[in-house]
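Reproducibility note. Readers wishing to regenerate the assembly model reported in the main text can use the exact inputs given here. Chain order matters: entities are listed in the order in which they were concatenated for prediction.
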Amino acid sequence: MDCKKEEALRRGPWLEEEDKRLVKFVTLLGERRWDSLARVSGLKRSGKSCRLRWMNYLNPSLKCGPLSQEEEIIIFQLHALWGNKWSKIARRLPGRTDNQIKNYWRTHLRKKVEAQNYDKIIDWRGNKGEELLHKYKETEIMWTRMKTREYGFDETVKEYKQRNMENDKETNGVICETERFGVTNSPYENRIIDWISKSDANLLEDHSSSSTDNNININVGSWWFQEIMDFEEFSCSLWS
DNA sequence: AATGGCCCCAACCGCCGTTTC
DNA sequence: AGAAACGGCGGTTGGGGCCAT
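Running the prediction on these inputs yields the following structure tokens for the assembly.
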């Protein structure tokens, strides 16, 4: 009996056809009742497997591309604060998954942490830090809205484009289509990338003169980071 | 060209808290 | 109220790709 059951369920890498089918049924039925969805869809996968595939790969609100230095710093800080609370950290990085952050930590950041202590300092005080905090908050609000049921994804992207056209000609058009879904880079990513490129190019280096190319120094007690912490209550509904 | 080691990340596993019936 | 189903989370694994030898 169990053997039959196991035989019936596929494992391992997902095929393109399976992905398409999963997307179709999630669109139809929503992101819930994964076991039922798996059964109804005819996918020979467990509900858990379907959920994982959607959450970590197919969900159109996920960001593609490598983590930015800014995101890396946030991961550093939050990990110092919360430890291996990957999903909690992921909620602070819209468009990134817990799995993604966990993998990134294990393969990139852990070594850096092992190589040095957290008490080395990037000093974010001054206008640059303030600007960063502002951008962080702004984009987070945006993503909170994107995840809110009352806004359709497409509609919100339009809104985002319009915002950019009005507010910042240079950030307009940073929309990048993915192959499958016609999705954008997240506003968060685009804005941070844009901001970094437009800001003093050496901001990070300036404030971490003691760091090497391979090591980023972090001040866990940065004032702006504390503000982000205070801001948590307000933005905790990011994914809800 | 072959191969061994390493890195990266998608996918799985097992546990536990929450929801549903 | 309690059992079963479901969903979320953190840890682990396996395989593909890259690179040095």
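We highlight two features of this model. Residues 11-14, 48-49, 52-53, 56-57, 99-100, 103-104, 106-108 of chain A lie near DNA strand B (CB under 10 Å from a C1'). Chain A has two domains: 2-58, 69-235.
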